[in-house]
Amino acid sequence: MNTPQPRKSIPFLVTLGVASIALVGCSGGDSSSEPTITGEATTYDSLEELRDLYVEAGGECPEWEELDPGDWDAVAGRCSDSVVITVFNDTSQIDEVVQSSLDLIVETHLLVGENWIINTANPENYVDALGGAVITG
Questions:
Q1: Which superkingdom does the taxonomy of this entry point to (predicted)?
Q2: Among 28, 69, 118, 122, whose Cα sits 20 to 30 Å from the Cα of 35?
Q3: What is the pLDDT of residues 29-38, one digit of tens each?
């Protein structure tokens, strides 16, 4: 686990917004967070574990870069401009992050677990391997 550092929310939200824009362009903005596909409830102990399992499940991660998660009590990283992976220490923040993503003016594609979120173009492709719920908007 990384040592906690002072957090700033802007970089994380900007990264999440950029990833969403890269995924689908300018559509969406639906504010519903109802899952469309639900797998097992799962948790992961580390960001690296989740990233490695994402890749094992067929996800691409050509350029790994850890990100500052801002105000969120989490660790985050980016595989590319269109894939952001976050593991939360404080799971009570997940709903707020999901809602913030859905409030963007771009379409959102998330795979959300008990303590993690993956922002990826086709989250439904990873439900069987990783668990979680697909939320799009």
A1: Bacteria
A2: 69
A3: 444 567 778 8
Neighbour tally for 78: CB within 10 Å: 21
Kindly state whether residue 99 falls inside one of the protein's structural domains.
Answer: yes
18 in any annotated domain? no
| pTM exceeding the 0.70 threshold for the entire prediction | yes
In a domain, 28, yes or no: no
Residues 82, 88, 42: CA angle, nearest 5 degrees: 85
Three-state SS for 112? strand
**Residue 112 φ then ψ, to 5°:** -120, 125
The residue type found at 124 is E
**HEC readout, 25-81:** CCCCCCCCCCCCEECCCCCCCCHHHHHHHHHHCCCCCCCCEEECCCCCCEEEEEEEC
pLDDT tens for each residue of 16-26? 443 433 333 33
Three-state DSSP at 89 gives coil
Could you list the residue range(s) of the whole structural domain that residue 53 is in? 40-136
Q: How far apart are CA 27 and CA 30, in angstroms?
A: 9
User: For position 56, which CATH number holds?
Assistant: 3.30.200
In a domain, 93, yes or no: yes
